[in-house]
Write a structure and sequence with these properties.
The chain has 326 residues and is of the alpha+beta class. It has helices at 14-31, 40-61, 65-72, 79-86, 100-109, 128-134, 182-197, 205-225, 232-244, 246-251, 255-269, and strands at residues 76-77, 111-116, 165-170, 278-284, 290-297, 301-307, 323-325. It has a four-stranded mixed sheet. It starts with 13 loop residues before the first helix and ends with a strand.
């Protein structure tokens, strides 16, 4: 007789390891039970303990869509929200790879959980071009959804689709990132990661290594990015370095993910995120600027903007959204 359970993410939790050890002990005890023994009450107790342990393990690894929606309410953007936005029911939906405790923390922090789909049922990539074709530029009330999306068709990021999976993201710009340059915004995102997401607990190794890399390159990037005689070559070098940083890839969304999230949230809740501000993403434009998405007001609709790595005065009120994809 064996015990079956599914692991769909790599947890770093001592409690999880301890629970699995206990499960194996219980399995061994159950396997050793003789059919001739008459104390079936003890067998039932072992079965019940196995079920309780399995439930604890599952809660540390993942959460069901029903549980996630119960915790997050309107901030749960699952298959129904995708259908409301794009007109199709997503197929091959992956399990939610966040533990129950992480979803509860997301609720406390005002984050939302979104299912990001990378293609239509016909196999067409769900990039900006496809979204512009699926979703009218104005909604039924006459309010504008997209501003300059149609002007970005020559940009490489225009053809990108979201990564298939689930993501947690903030509905507002992270405190400390507003009206700051890209480097300073990244420092604010790291502080948010340490003091809000993983408060009173060690950072997972992938974040520790990513932050160490950032710290080792920060001074070089700053010299390139904020120089008063910033040349196009210097700007391109600075944004190349920023874009390649592991921490940037881990905690910022891509342009299509930002647009996708804002649009799905609006269609599901009739609420405009980033209505007067933009979030700088993890992608560069061809000329070397960083790409931002937002300023989603009712008159002009969502904007895709480009801004230099050292500019802050020209990006007043813009900043960074925290986005965690798995």
């Amino acid at each position: 007789m064996g015990i079956w359970y599914t692991v769909n993410m790599k947890p770093s939790c001592h409690q999880l390891a301890a629970d699995i050890v206990e499960l194996r002990k219980l399995q061994a005890e159950l396997n050793a039970w003789s059919v001739d023994d008459s104390d079936f009450y003890q067998v039932e107790k072992i079965y019940q303990e196995i079920e309780n342990r399995l439930l604890k393990v599952r809660e540390q690894i993942s959460i069901s869509p029903e549980q996630a929606e119960m915790i997050l309410g309107q901030d749960y953007l699952g298959p129904k929200a995708i259908q409301e936005t794009f007109g199709f029911v997503p197929e091959n939906i992956p399990p939610i790879p966040f533990a129950k405790a992480r979803i509860e923390r997301a609720k406390e922090l005002g984050q939302f959980l979104v299912l990001r789909v990378n293609q239509t049922p016909d196999g067409e990539l769900l990039n900006m071009k496809t979204i512009a074709a699926l979703v009218p530029r104005q909604d039924a009330s006459g309010q504008t959804l997209f501003a300059n999306l149609y002007l970005r068709q020559d940009e490489a990021y225009y053809a990108e689709a979201p990564t298939l999976g689930w993501a947690l993201a903030t509905k507002e710009l992270v405190p400390g990132s507003i009206s700051k340059n890209y480097l300073e915004q990244t420092e604010a995102l790291i502080d948010y990661l340490k003091t809000k997401i993983f408060v009173n607990q060690p950072l997972p190794e992938k974040y520790q290594k990513a932050i160490e890399e950032f710290e080792s390159q920060k001074s070089t990037i700053r010299e390139l990015a904020v120089s008063f005689d910033l040349s196009r070559k210097q700007q391109t070098k600075a944004t190349e370095m920023l874009e390649s940083l592991a921490i940037v890839q881990l905690v910022r969304h891509s342009p299509i993910e930002a647009l996708y999230d804002i649009l799905v949230y609006y269609k599901h809740n009739n609420v405009r995120l980033l209505e007067h501000v933009a979030s700088l993403t993890r992608r560069r434009a061809p000329r070397g600027e960083m790409v931002g998405v937002g300023r989603f007001d009712a008159e002009y609709g969502m904007n895709v903007i480009h801004t230099g790595p050292g500019w802050s005065l020209t990006s007043i009120n813009d900043g960074a959204v925290y986005s965690e994809t798995r």
